[in-house]
Every structure is written in C-alpha cells, then in structure tokens.
C-alpha cells in the first residue's frame, strides 16, 4: 500500500496497478491538534471545534467508542496488543505442551520458553527495576543468558504484565491519537509495510506496528533550488518555525547557504488571540532572496506571515518550498494576496485544482521516489540510497 505518496491519480494508479498493490492515501493524522484532550480547555487551532463538542446536540465525542487505542487500556493498544496476542499464543502452546510432549521443532521451541521463564526472574526483576527508574534495559538484560527466543519469552512476559503505562496525576497526554488510531486501522486492515513521505515528525513511524519507510521530499526541493532559483548561493534558507529548523538547516548545509529562523509563538490566551501570535526573525535577510522551507502548508498562515515578516526585514523575493501543499480553506486566496512570490509544493497532495486558482503555485513530482521505493521493497533491496541526499 502506498501512503502519502504521489497523489497524481493516474501515476499512483499506474504504480499500484503495475506492482499489484492497493492504492493508499494521505496520512494527515500525524499532526497533533493543538489542544489537549479536554473539551472545555481553551486551545488554539481547534478550540472552536472543541467547544462545539461540549454541546449536547453535537453528534461526535472526543473519545470514540470503542475507545481509541491508548496506553491506559493496553490490551487494545498497538504494541501491547501485539505482545499480548503473542503472549496468549505462547501460554496456549505451553498448556498444549503440558498435555502432550512436543513433537515438532516449533513445539520444542515454545516448550523451552516455559522451562526457562521461571529461571529468569533475576533478569525480569532487573527489567522491572529499570522500568521503575524510567530506563528499559531490556536488550542488555535479555542478553545475559539464554538464547534469543528464551529472551523474547521473558521480555514479552514483562511487557504485557509489568510495564503497563501508569499516568501520573495531572499528566496530560499530548499525542496525536487520531494518528495512532489510523495507523492501527491500517495495520488491522492487513497492511504489512507502509511507505510515507515527510511525516510531520519522524517519530510517528512508531505509531505503526509494521515496517515504515519514511521518504523525504528534500532532495526534490533541493533540486528546484539548484535548477530554478537564480544565484541561489546568495539566497537565505529560512525555517518558519523552530519545529522545522532541522529540516531547513539540513538543506542550507547541503547547499552551503546561510540560514535564518523565524520563531513562531502560538500561545494565545484566548481563541481570538490566535492571529496575534508573534513571529520573530533570527538572521539577516536584507537585500536577499529568501527560501522558506516547511513540511506542510495547511491554512498557509505560517508561510504567508513568514513572507510578510521577511519582506518587512528587507528580503527582495520570498519563495516557499513546501513538501505537502494541503492548502485547505482559503489558503490559496491568502497566498495570492500575500508577499510570497512563488510557492513550490510536491504532488503528495493533488494540486490540479489549486494550480487553476493560484498563479504562484509550482508543482514538483515525487512519484518517481515512491516508484523507486516500492521497487526496492519489492525486490528486497536497500532503501538507504534514497536518503543519502538528505
Ligand atoms: O499552514 P498552517 O496551518 O500554518 O500550518 C503549517 C504549519 O503547521 C506545522 O507546524 P506546527 O504549527 O504544527 O508546529 P511544529 O512544527 O512546531 O509542530 C507545519 O510544520 C507548518 O509550520
């Protein structure tokens, strides 16, 4: 399945058709909402939506039924679900084995789990004590004696019984629950491998219990800078917020270009204060071309406000290079009216309609990256070559 891939419909369809795999979709759920899961909490992005959740006639609730996988209910949560299921299998096989002597290699293997587990209480204790101090030293503990599958058995035992998540009083979860839920749904639906592009945070690969290959759009964006921006060596790469600084600075380092950072503060006290959140520039952009790099533009507030600030600070031209051009709501109108001179996006999101309405929009194709990744996965080849330019 291709996720977050080229959304050029015909291209995706051709890739999937040729390889005999189903066509996937975007994974926009990895960006967390900007409020904790408390309906009456005043937040920023989704506050208005959150307030309407508390109205009695509103048809949806934050907590879905059945409940969203969550560390508090570990039997349904992704990783623990897997280990629980495996643990149950092992226990069942142990019971079977106690009724009849093992006749196959597999039965003999699982029988050894049962025999070894009691002897490993010292190792389990050490893991338990490590967990209580916030450190999991499972790998080193499990290598102290025994074979790999013996270690697996005791580790599974510990994970499913002893390390269930205990929230501290007052602890608020800041997790993209929708992202975890959708990852679990995809896995439950039968996917055994996921290919994504530029997850908002690479850590979101951990939402999945199956292998994930997260591709990057940076090589494509770098190619545009080198081939289409005149005198790009004199330009400045700008990150519009601290969260994207690593992404933008890696491009600046790779091309030997200077780097500037905009500090975006999104901590208003009231819903209506959101537009007043402040942006401050660190770096010199006067009389230079600025290239704003970001992973996504949704409302396009971030890039349009960045462009306004950069022009105010003396920038000659402002390009925005964005991997995922979601461009929802009135984003296109904002871009048209903004100080941005050009907005460059990839076709990880369909751009045909956006292009008709936005003369500043340039679209780069990333279909070949997905095609190569799929080909390599299909033939069991390494994917690392696809990341070497990042
Ligand atoms: O077009 P917009 O609606 O303004 O959204 C785009 C911004 O949102 C994301 O960052 P976010 O605000 O989530 O902060 P982070 O990078 O620190 O996670 C993303 O990295 C962009 O900067």
TrEMBL record:
<protein>
    <recommendedName>
        <fullName>Ribose-phosphate pyrophosphokinase</fullName>
    </recommendedName>
</protein>
<dbReference type="InterPro" id="IPR000836">
    <property type="entry name" value="PRTase_dom"/>
</dbReference>
<feature type="compositionally biased region" description="Polar residues">
    <location>
        <begin position="96"/>
        <end position="109"/>
    </location>
</feature>
<feature type="compositionally biased region" description="Polar residues">
    <location>
        <begin position="129"/>
        <end position="155"/>
    </location>
</feature>
<dbReference type="InterPro" id="IPR005946">
    <property type="entry name" value="Rib-P_diPkinase"/>
</dbReference>
<feature type="region of interest" description="Disordered">
    <location>
        <begin position="95"/>
        <end position="155"/>
    </location>
</feature>
<feature type="compositionally biased region" description="Basic and acidic residues">
    <location>
        <begin position="119"/>
        <end position="128"/>
    </location>
</feature>
<comment type="similarity">
    <text>Belongs to the ribose-phosphate pyrophosphokinase family.</text>
</comment>
<dbReference type="Pfam" id="PF14572">
    <property type="entry name" value="Pribosyl_synth"/>
</dbReference>
<dbReference type="InterPro" id="IPR029057">
    <property type="entry name" value="PRTase-like"/>
</dbReference>
């Amino acid at each position: 399945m291709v996720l977050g891939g080229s959304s050029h419909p015909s291209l995706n369809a051709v890739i999937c058709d040729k390889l005999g795999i189903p066509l996937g979709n975007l994974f926009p759920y990895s960006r967390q909402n900007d409020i904790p899961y408390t309906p009456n909490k005043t937040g920023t992005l989704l506050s208005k939506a959150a307030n309407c959740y508390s109205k009695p006639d509103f048809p949806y609730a934050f907590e879905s039924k059945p409940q969203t996988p969550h560390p508090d209910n570990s039997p349904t949560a992704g990783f623990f679900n897997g280990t629980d299921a495996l643990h149950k299998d092992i226990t069942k096989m142990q019971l079977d084995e106690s009724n009849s002597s093992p006749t196959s290699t597999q039965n003999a293997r699982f029988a050894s789990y049962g025999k070894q587990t009691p002897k490993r209480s010292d190792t389990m204790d050490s893991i338990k004590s490590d967990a209580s101090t916030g450190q999991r030293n499972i790998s080193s503990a499990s290598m102290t004696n025994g074979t790999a599958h013996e270690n697996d058995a005791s580790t599974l035992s510990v994970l499913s019984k002893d390390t269930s998540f205990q929230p501290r009083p007052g602890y608020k979860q800041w997790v993209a629950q929708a992202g975890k839920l959708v990852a679990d749904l995809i896995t439950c639906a039968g996917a055994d491998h996921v290919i994504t592009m530029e997850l908002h945070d690479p850590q979101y690969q951990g939402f999945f219990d199956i292998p994930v290959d997260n591709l990057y759009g940076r090589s494509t964006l770098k190619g545009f800078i080198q081939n289409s921006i005149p005198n790009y060596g004199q330009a400045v790469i700008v990150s519009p917020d601290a969260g994207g600084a690593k992404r933008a600075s890696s491009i600046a380092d790779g091309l030997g270009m200077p780097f500037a950072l905009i500090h975006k503060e999104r901590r208003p006290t009231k819903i209506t204060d959101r537009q007043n959140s402040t942006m401050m520039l660190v770096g010199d952009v006067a009389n230079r071309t600025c290239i704003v790099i970001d992973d996504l533009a949704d409302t396009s507030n971030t890039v349009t406000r960045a462009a306004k600030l950069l022009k105010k600070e003396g920038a000659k031209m402002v390009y925005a290079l964005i991997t995922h051009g979601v461009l929802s709501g009135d984003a296109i109108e904002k871009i048209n009216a903004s100080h941005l001179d050009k907005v460059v996006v990839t076709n990880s999101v369909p751009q045909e309609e956006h292009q008709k309405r936005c003369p500043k929009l340039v679209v780069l194709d990333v279909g070949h990256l997905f095609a190569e990744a799929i080909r390599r996965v299909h033939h069991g080849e390494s994917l690392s070559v696809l990341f070497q330019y990042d």
